[in-house]
Design a protein that fits this description.
- Helix 1 crosses helix 3.
- By secondary structure, this protein is α+β, with helices and mostly antiparallel strands.
- Strands 1-2-3-4-5-6-8-7 form an eight-stranded mixed β-sheet, with helices on both faces.
C-alpha cells in the first residue's frame, strides 16, 4: 500500500510525481545537499518519481509557511526488501540547507519510519549516511538509529574517489 500523504508534526510527505521532478532536481543539486548526494540530472529524478511501486517510494517534504503557504523543502524515499528472511526498509533523505538543524529532517524521518513500522509492518529500518556527515548522524541517532558499522569505500564522491559510509539501523521499538 503506497500512502499518497503522510502527516508529521511539522511536515507533510506527499507522494512525488513527474510534476515534482524539477523542484526535486533543484533540491538534490543545491549547496549543502549535493555534497552528500552528488549531482543528479533531471532525467534521473524524473525516472525515480515515475517508478514508485511496493519496493521504492519517493515523497516530497512540504513545510507549511505563513498564511497557509506550502514550500517543498526536501525529499525522502524508502526502499523495501521483501524477502521474508531479510525483510527490512531503507530510508534516504535530502533537505535544503536553509532547513538543516530545524527539526524538518527529524520530523520527516520519524513520520516515514512510523508508516513503515505501523502500516507496512517493518521491524527494522536502515539508513546509510556518509561516515563524515556528523550532522546527519546526530539527527538519525536522536531518532534511535544506532551505528552498525563502517562500510569502507562505500560511495563514490564528487571528487571521483570512494568514501566510507556508516550503516545505521533502527528496530521498531527503538523509534523515538
Amino acid at each position: 500500500m503506497i500512502a499518497e500523504e503522510l502527516r508529521g508534526d511539522r511536515v507533510v510527505l506527499r507522494l512525488a510525481g513527474p510534476a515534482d521532478a524539477g523542484i526535486l532536481t533543484d533540491i538534490v543539486n543545491s549547496p549543502g545537499v549535493v555534497e552528500w548526494w552528488n549531482e543528479h540530472p533531471y532525467d534521473e529524478i524524473l525516472e525515480d518519481v515515475s517508478a514508485s511501486d511496493e519496493t521504492f517510494v519517493l515523497y516530497r517534504i512540504d513545510l507549511a509557511g505563513d498564511e497557509g503557504s506550502v514550500a517543498t523543502v526536501g525529499l525522502i524515499q524508502y526502499s523495501r526488501e521483501l524477502d521474508p528472511q531479510y525483510v527490512h526498509a531503507g530510508i534516504d533523505i535530502a533537505v535544503l540547507a536553509a532547513h538543516h538543524r530545524r527539526g524538518v529532517a527529524t520530523d520527516a524521518i520519524r513520520t516515514l519510519a512510523r508508516h513503515l513500522v505501523d502500516d507496512l509492518g517493518h521491524h527494522r529500518i536502515v539508513i546509510d549516511p556518509a561516515a563524515d556527515n556528523t550532522v546527519a548522524i546526530a539527527c538519525y541517532s536522536s531518532l534511535g538509529f544506532r551505528p552498525v558499522g563502517i562500510m569502507r569505500r562505500y560511495e563514490r564522491g564528487r571528487d571521483g574517489t570512494f568514501h566510507d559510509g556508516l550503516l545505521m539501523d533502527l528496530l521498531a521499538d527503538e523509534l523515538r
